[in-house]
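call fold(seq) -> tokens
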Amino acid sequence: MELGLKGKVAAVTGGSEGIGRATVQRLVAEGVKVALCARRADVLETFAAELRKSGADILPVVADATKPGDMERFIEETVRKYGRVDIVVNNAGGTGQDPFEKVSDEAWQKDLDVKVFAHIRTTRAAVPHMRKNGGGRIINLNMVGAKAPFAGSFPTTISRAAGLALTKALSKEYAGDNILVNAVAVGKIKSMQQERRAARTGKTVPLGRMGESAEVANVIAFLASDAASYVTGVCINVDGGISGVL
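ret:
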């Protein structure tokens, strides 16, 4: 399928590892110019060097999604280099889960900073450029637990639920500007952390395996593409069937 992404410009947060890394690789394969940010300069530069060897047009930016000003600077540097931004993938985040009484105010604030405020700041910086260019795509990474929070899932599922509300509200706000806003809710995607958690809980996935980061990236690429030109305000589960809700 021709996705119509060649020549587009994307900004991906948390782009050096995991789902973010796979997303950058997928978009680059489609001919997208990609700016990616992460906190660790060494990991970021190593990944960028690998991509450049294959001819990719890449802009690595050291930035921390929890710090006010960093996401705005990331978008500014993207536009400064490429003259536009067509796609924003808000991927930076984590999966910390604890019982309610163990979560401090500091932990709550940090989680909200990276999973809600970072999305707000990146989107707010990108929207004027997208509007000027006749539209764009904003894709917010989320988790299936946000749709059905469970015991011991604090603060992550609460922050992620706020992210879903943000996605829906933004989709209504900017539909008239042809800025489509969607979310991808992941389940058990292969990582050392998820493998340890699965061994501890014994919870199985209906498809019989954990997902691969590349499988999430495929859905993100679809939502960024011309093939999804009439899709906005939705959250697609990429979870192997583990969620009990649509």
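The chain has one domain: 9-238.
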